[in-house]
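Slide 14.
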Amino acid sequence: MMNRNFVKKVMVLAFTGALAVAPAAFAETEAQTEEVTIIGGADSATSILLGGWEVNSDKLSIDDEANKDAKKAFEKAIDGLEGYDYEPIAVLGRQVVAGTNYSILCRGIVIVPDAEPVFEIITIYEDLDGKAEITGDKEILNGDSDAQGGYAVNEGDVSFEKNEDVKAAFDKAIETLDGADYEPVAYLGKQTVSGFNYAALMRVTPVVPDAEPEFDLVTVYEDLDGNAEITDTETVSIDAQDDVSETEADTEA
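Slide 15: predicted structure.
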């Protein structure tokens, strides 16, 4: 089944008349689902199961030397794409198939007046000949300015160091937690209530030997007195094609 967020995006781009290159950019490839055997990755933090996803436990920035292959694949995949803009933020993982799939956190926006950005995870497939294309995307946070109490998507710097209020709230909420390390990946947005809800993507690693990290969408509530606590944690699949809701699954059953 095609990703429902991707379907909506294609409809918007088609409506604006800017979808000339999108069908090729988003074509699906049978090779990307091929499963093979286990190998050891000399330049990776863990061994890779071919056909399975390896969560990035190293440097996350797409501009880091460790992610130069992902950056090249991203640039090739979006070359010529019109009507939509992707800002890459973090490389979340990779999947070795007949070629390589890369999972990248992006801030995306339709290039039309008054469009609002969304945060999404995209999958880029690069084949063995070096050709790359976007094969999936899913939103993890969007804003709705018309919805009362909706989130305001962060349109500025995503680092905690550049958002002192957000960093302070998360530091207070996490300081008493044991059992896992929480590493901020990106500050995504804010919801104004009686106080504030802050949403961020974080890399969470259990404090046990040989633990592997996961990426969680974490919500922290800060009240008007400055008290803060984690109110919601949702594990995010780095596979952008893994986006079938329970409702859709029930409908197909």
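Speaker note: The longest strand covers residues 84-97.
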